[in-house]
Amino acid sequence: MATDSMPHERTLWNHVAPPLSALDLEMVRAVPPGGDWRDIPAEIIAKSSRLKQISKSGGRTTYYGRLRSDMPSYTISTYFNRPGNGTFIHPTQDRTISLREAARLQSFPDSFRFSGPFSSILKQVGNAVPPLLARAVGETLAAGSTVDLFCGAGGLSSGLQQAGHKIMVAADVDPHMCQTYSLNHPGVRVLCRDMSHRNEYQEVLEEIENRLRGRTLSLLAGGPPCQGFSTAGWWNSADNRNILLGIMLRAVRDLMPEQVLIENVPGIKWIAGGTYLQRALSVLGELDYTVVFRVLHAEQYGVPQRRTRVIIVGLRARDTWDPPQLLFQAIPRGCRFPVCVPPCGLPFPVTVGEAIADLPRLVPGAGAEVVPYDEVWTTTEYQRLMRGKISFHQFVARRCL
User: Fold this and answer.
1) Most buried in the list 46, 57, 99, 386, measured by CB within 10 Å?
2) How far is C-alpha 386 from the chain's CA centre?
């Protein structure tokens, strides 16, 4: 067993595999790499009411899916511990992916340590902005003083820091998220506040202003949960979930930073017929920001995962914003095998095998918060990047040849 005092180069954090029931294990064993619930034999399906319903109605082909080593993963959600919720079965082992494997697929470096109960870490990893995606966007913006609202565990901040931004203040309502954020960003003032309450929002605002000391904030960034916001006002006591994006926009109005970065799920384009997204763009425009929104695919920026995100950028001093340079191919929707990815002159994305094949074998429910790691296991450029052995620019230069 490793200990906290073990040198980082011989340490692996959070390599814990979720437990599985006996029935789940039967299902997992029946699914081949790239397969899904349709590969599970009828006699096993007959034991599960959920599988019988899926089989009868025709569920998503990602349910009970097993990853392929030669493809990027599907989107890592907050329920990657459950084989029936997506494609989360390890490509070569009969279990779902571990916390660290999911973090690798999200592009968190191995030095990033998650803290809190198992159920919270699932959310911390699954809800995070992939740091390499955040880095790509951050490199298109002028580096300077930065605030991260709705910061979660710190994926967005980690990527922005890699791109040279200086995070001053971060805030989130979840205490476990804040604990993990503080553990990995010791120089940042982290506030655990519910900004849907006026007084707690004001506390966050005052902390930011105190640290700015009259200077203009360079970048206000955040990923407010996508429930939308009330068009009737900034705060709606009837449903606080409906005002989080509105609070982000209120902070823009109160701070007037040079740049704004808002990250969200693709569904924001369709919530309430697209009115939430259009309202956000309109508010930023009314505040004299040049506003651009783009849909970005994480696998094109070094993340070994098919994850699509909406990025909204607002600029005060520039007329245009150019999205980050593409590094890798995109995986077409519905593509399940490498042969269905049309050549486009860019290298193939980082695969699951490249990302996690070096990590120690586990059985369901096994692992520990701290386990030993032998550096001789590191064999790919992505693994070297995650272990901190090479820089991102070295990774790109070597992997994109």
Assistant:
1) 386
2) 15
